[in-house]
Amino acid sequence: MEPESSLSPYAPPRAAVLDVEPEVSLERPPQVARAVMLLWIGFGIGIAVALYRLAVPAPQHLPLMVQSGIYAAVFLFTFWLNTKLARGRNWARLLYLICTGLGLLSAPVFLFNLFTGRLPALDSLVSLFQLGLGGYICYLLLTRPAREWFHAMKMRA
Predict the structure, then answer these.
(1) How far apart, in whole angstroms, are the C-alpha atoms of residue 122 and residue 39?
(2) d(CA 90, CA 156)
(3) Which residue, 4, 37, 81, 90, could crosslink 150 as a Cys pair with Cβ 3.0–4.6 Å?
(4) How many other CB atoms are there within 10 angstroms of residue 4's CB atom?
């Protein structure tokens, strides 16, 4: 017969309690590190192109203040999304994938504008480069190590 203390609901558990080691390291995998680096490079290119577009006199459809406001809003959103992605937020990864997927739908428009001369070649080529860069970043964020890291970061939070 067991001692009366073991039948008490207030007795400590008899099972061994161990800390479980995480299966995935919380250190950022190289694929994610490369993707984050490329995100910031693309961000810098975008700022340079925006400043060039604002500085070079061209027939504009929108007033300069409206264009500046649009650029500012886009860059603030991009900065915010990049920082959340770098911190391992899975929802930011999914949002980036969706935004880039929608952006890839515009590639035929850029190609058409490039070949018909409706936009300056530099604008079309930079836009196509940005879309290609975004596609590569999506690939990096969809690799197995990246998915596992984002999942581990989600479980940690």
Answers:
(1) 20
(2) 12
(3) 90
(4) 8
